[in-house]
């Protein structure tokens, strides 16, 4: 924490004005929205006082960082500055992608390099410093995840309790961050809009400082524009492309450029372009239809969770910024976003979350629509880091095959080029591949064509028999389902031959009794039967299989863990069961199986896990 003692200017060098009705709002009345009309506020500086302050305090030659721009912030001279050393993020010329897109001057401003992995840290610097200045006793914030992580980090530094309201399915990385910063988290069964409303009510009722996409945040985030200008050698790009949720950041970036121009640091202003996912294109729809306010989207549907915001708080500001700058607004599909995210990682080693890839995803469309010229210098804002939402990458890439620690397994990995297997990607996940059982030959060509994988006959036979279950249950096999089955087969690299197979089962389920199961298994070519009850149908079947095995099996296998994931990766038709088996020598196996029904998937996972564990036991 830094204490500022450098400002000797009179306090009233700025005021808050409503962007809609024009009312001047005293800070003690509201730090969020206009009490009169509910619209966003804007910081307006007294031009003379502002210039004097910058002339006196701003050191143009200092290295970039958000704190370099302290004189640009509406903070009191005695303010304690709550900082984690945010800003100063790299501006990267992405040469290879530039060549591919025939857009020679393409830059990424990598905001994922901020302390909590998102540009919001710049805003939190000003906002939480302001909360201290206003003697807040606690902070409350609604968030899709990143705001929660950032605000709780800065609250932790400030020593303020931070209440966080997030929708239930918030990406894990972001939730983990907020937890680690000691936030008091409430998970809301609703959308981000519900969280926002509740946070406002909490702030009002308990007199907490309402943090979020409000007026002081913009002041910190405008430093993105300052840094871009400095990093380009005090030049202005032609275009800046910004992913938009609430629109706060886009409007803040525009404000930064405008302030630099007013001070005479730059001569022109860039066009500002908004990008949103087509599943939640509020600001884009308003721009394209010439509306003043963005239409409400009740159910945002997109992998870009950070911008899945149905009611953007700063729509008026963002729309004005886009129009005044001569910019534009475009929507892109989730599959284009996933492709851009993948490209940034694989070609430029920049790992971002889906929302942050929106700006790159838009470039092609912007070229086609002639909004971008080839000669333009373009800065793409990459808003947040990839580790915040690891599931988004896991879902679009094949799961790596698991093998025994043995060089012959590595040989096979290389021989079959298992590293080069393509995934179903995003666009093709639901593409129907089989409505009836394919021949082995057809299955082989399909797998080669769709996934670039060349599998052994034993693997193909396993996959084919799994497909048979789908078909028998009246389900089609989509591309994502086949991907799961291929990945499953690769998990079987280990063993050549199954010693155990489940041949048949029968289940009895009655309302008032524990379920019972009869099974027929084959162990080393011998048929074995057993019967068992269980707490549930899956438990009954697995217990029966283990009982049958007990008659002959040398392996006193022990099922130490059992997890069931429904529809983890495949289509709606798939249930994925993951099971961990451990033997008495502490060898363990994690086996996964996919099937339309949970019992079949559980049996397949157990069968696979057992067989791998058996061969492991033979070797060790
Ligand atoms: C918050 C956020 C955005 C959207 O910014 P707004 O100011 O709400 O428009 C975009 N990307 C990421 C990663 C974010 O966290
Ligand atoms: Zn107003």
Radius of gyration: 29 Å
Give the amount of beta strand, in percent: 15-25%
**Main pleated sheet:** 6 strands, mixed
Task: Give the class from helix and strand content and strand pairing.
Answer: alpha/beta
What is the level 1 CATH name of the largest domain? Answer: Alpha Beta
> In which order are the strands of the major sheet placed?
5-6-14-11-12-13
Give me the number of helical elements: 20
The total tally of domains equals 4
DSSP strand count: 22
In the CATH hierarchy, the architecture of the largest domain is 3-Layer(aba) Sandwich
Q: How far apart are the first and last residues' alpha carbons, in Å?
A: 57 Å
Annotation keywords:
620 residues, alpha/beta, Rossmann fold, 4 domains, six-stranded mixed β-sheet, four-stranded parallel β-sheet, 22 strands, 39% helix, 19% strand, elongated, disordered N terminus, binds pyridoxal-5'-phosphate, binds zinc ion
């Amino acid at each position: 924490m830094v204490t500022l003692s450098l400002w000797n200017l009179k306090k009233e060098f700025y005021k808050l004005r409503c962007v809609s009705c024009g009312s001047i709002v005293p800070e003690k009345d509201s730090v969020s929205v206009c009490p009169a009309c509910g619209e966003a506020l804007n910081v307006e500086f007294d031009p003379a006082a502002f210039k004097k302050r910058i002339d006196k305090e701003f050191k143009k030659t200092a290295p970039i960082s958000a704190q370099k721009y302290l004189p640009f912030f509406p903070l009191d001279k005695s303010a304690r500055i709550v900082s984690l050393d945010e800003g100063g993020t790299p501006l990267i010329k992405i040469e290879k992608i530039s060549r591919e897109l025939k857009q020679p001057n393409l830059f990424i401003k990598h905001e994922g390099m901020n302390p909590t992995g998102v540009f919001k840290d710049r805003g939190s610097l000003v906002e939480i410093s302001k909360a201290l200045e206003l003697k807040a006793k606690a902070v409350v914030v609604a968030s899709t995840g990143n705001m929660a992580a950032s605000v709780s980090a800065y609250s932790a530094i400030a020593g303020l309790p931070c209440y966080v309201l997030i929708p239930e399915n918030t990406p894990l990385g972001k939730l983990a961050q907020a937890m680690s910063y000691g936030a008091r988290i409430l998970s809301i069964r609703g959308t981000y809009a519900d969280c926002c409303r509740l946070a406002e009510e909490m702030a009002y009722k308990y007199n907490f400082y309402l943090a979020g996409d409000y007026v002081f945040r913009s002041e910190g985030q405008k430093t993105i524009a300052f840094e871009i200008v400095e990093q380009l050698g005090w030049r202005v790009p032609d275009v800046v492309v910004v992913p938009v949720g609430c629109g706060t950041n886009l409007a803040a970036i525009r404000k930064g450029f405008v302030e630099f121009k007013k001070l005479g640091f730059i001569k022109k202003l860039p066009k500002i372009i908004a990008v949103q996912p087509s599943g939640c294109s509020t600001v884009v729809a308003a721009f394209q239809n010439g509306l003043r306010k963005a239409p409400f989207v009740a159910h945002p549907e997109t992998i870009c969770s950070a911008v899945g915001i149905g009611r953007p708080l700063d729509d008026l500001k963002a729309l004005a910024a886009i129009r005044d700058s001569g910019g534009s607004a475009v929507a892109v599909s989730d599959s284009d976003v996933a492709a851009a995210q993948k490209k940034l990682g694989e070609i430029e080693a920049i790992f971002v979350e889906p929302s942050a890839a929106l700006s790159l995803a838009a470039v092609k469309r912007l070229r086609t629509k002639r909004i971008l010229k080839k000669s333009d210098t373009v800065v793409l804002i990459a808003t947040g880091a990839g580790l915040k939402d690891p599931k988004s990458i896991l879902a679009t890439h094949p799961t790596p095959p698991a093998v025994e620690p043995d060089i012959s397994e590595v040989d096979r990995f290389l021989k079959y080029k298992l590293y080069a297997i393509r995934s179903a990607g995003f666009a093709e996940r639901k593409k129907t591949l089989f409505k009836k059982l394919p021949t082995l030959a057809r299955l082989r060509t399909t797998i080669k064509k769709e996934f670039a994988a060349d599998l052994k006959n034993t693997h193909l036979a396993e996959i084919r028999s799994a497909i048979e279950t789908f078909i028998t249950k009246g389900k089609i096999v989509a591309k994502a389902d086949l991907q799961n089955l291929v990945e499953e087969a690769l998990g079987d690299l280990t063993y050549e031959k199954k010693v155990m197979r489940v041949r048949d089962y029968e289940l009895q389920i009655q309302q008032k009794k524990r379920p019972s199961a009869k099974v027929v298994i084959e162990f080393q070519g011998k048929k074995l039967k057993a019967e068992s009850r269980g707490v549930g149908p899956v438990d009954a079947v697995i217990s029966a299989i283990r009982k049958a095995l007990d008659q002959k099996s040398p392996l006193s296998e022990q099922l130490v863990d059992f997890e069931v994931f429904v529809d983890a990766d495949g289509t709606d038709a798939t249930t994925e069961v993951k099971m961990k088996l451990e033997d008495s020598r502490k060898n363990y196996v994690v086996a996964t199986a996919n099937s339309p029904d949970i019992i079949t998937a559980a049996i397949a996972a157990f069968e696979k896990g057992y067989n791998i564990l058996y061969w492991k036991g033979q070797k060790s």
